[in-house]
Amino acid sequence: MADIFGVPTSVLLGQLLLGLINGSFYALLSLGLAIIFGMLNVINFSHGAFYMLGGFTAWFMLSTLGFGYWTTLIAAPVAVGIVGAVVERLLLRRLYQMDHLYSLLLTFGIALMLEGLFRHIFGAAGKPYPVPSGLTGGINLGFMFLPVYRAWVIVVSLVICVLTWLAIERTKLGAYLRAATENPALVQAFGINVPLMLTLTYAFCVGLAGFAGALAAPLYQVSPGMGSSLIIVVFAVVVIGGMGSIGGAIFTALALGVIEGLTKTFYPAASSIAVFIVMVLVILIRPSGLFSREA
User: Which of 43, 138, 147, 271 lies 20 to 30 Å from 37, alpha-carbon distance?
Assistant: First the structure.
């Protein structure tokens, strides 16, 4: 293949594909963050900790309880969602009418406690998680050898993101949820249990983070710090896309994953800050985010 700006085309396409894989994880995590902020008005800094909790739950179910990969992929996010529902019921519910700073501080404290607890129990070293037998091997794309599991990650992430967006933006349930966040008293008058709806929303969103953690387990070692290394980037994704914009979070996450891949190809030294450079430029030009509904 011909070179592009001195870079072999095969290398460029390979980095773009790897960037898309990273972007799929950003999309799953930023999707939950955007929904929680847009619907519950909460800045959930514990999202990375729930991602880590999903990875450890999947690892524990596989290595200790003897569950298979597909069972853990379903059970781990359900378990994380239950933990999230308890957190929302006992703690977050008290902060809905307060300044965003209080929810940020609370969720940041929860993240520190969870990460510290798991670091104390399991140590800082990662735990191996094998690729399931049905998803081993690879696909020869001509320019690179793509592992089947990485292709599975891209497909399932995109499907879940699209289905979630459709559920919130195009269904009656999503309309009820949006109405409940804007005028809970009126929606309650129609016989809808608004507190339960908000609890289930938060549980579903942190369950998405748990699902991303279980999905990432075979790709990266499961460790207490796996969430803290991603959460800052994911917050940048949400800010760029527009706080509360679900479609914006999905599109921005995939786009920034590709931008990271391109940066690693042409200027590797800047790959770790490329997302934040984009965030600064967006804040200067459009502080509310690229896809925000605010004027």
Answer: 271
Over the stretch 187-240, which tens digit does the pLDDT of each residue have? Answer: 888 788 888 888 999 999 999 999 999 999 998 889 998 888 788 888 899 889
Which residue range(s) make up the domain with 200? 23-228
Has residue 220 been placed in a domain? yes
The total of structural domains in the chain comes to: 1
What residue ranges of the chain have pLDDT lower than 50? 295
pTM exceeds 0.85 for this model: yes
